[in-house]
Amino acid sequence: MAETPLDESQNDPLDNWPAWTVDCRPNPEQACAAMEAKQTIEKDVDQLSAGVRSAFRLRVMDGLSTKEARDVLGISENVVKSRLLRARGQLTKSLRQSFRMPPQKVADILSTSTMAVLWEASQTDAS
Prior knowledge:
Elements: H1 6-9, H2 17-20, H3 28-46, H4 50-61, H5 66-73, H6 77-99, H7 103-109, H8 112-126
Helix pairs in contact: 3-6, 4-5, 4-6, 5-6
């Protein structure tokens, strides 16, 4: 391995790496807001009736297919879909009140991918 003289290594452009490094982590305010939002969503999900809540958690938070949720719950696919629709409607209403946000923003939050990420984060926090 070739050795680099000390005076050459001090002029290396990589020595200035902190100047061009970007910290993509949330700042404390963003982290606190995300935690509060997650707690509000969990509280609202817990307020759903047992059947509606279980269908919602299986489909949206656990990522199961409608058929898999049907098998776990022992109900028809149409009932799973109906419960999921009911859950989204109730959550949209409660989240709009909690966060005072427009319907499209609530729909974005209730999307399967967003809920899966929130649920995964809540499971990581619990362990």
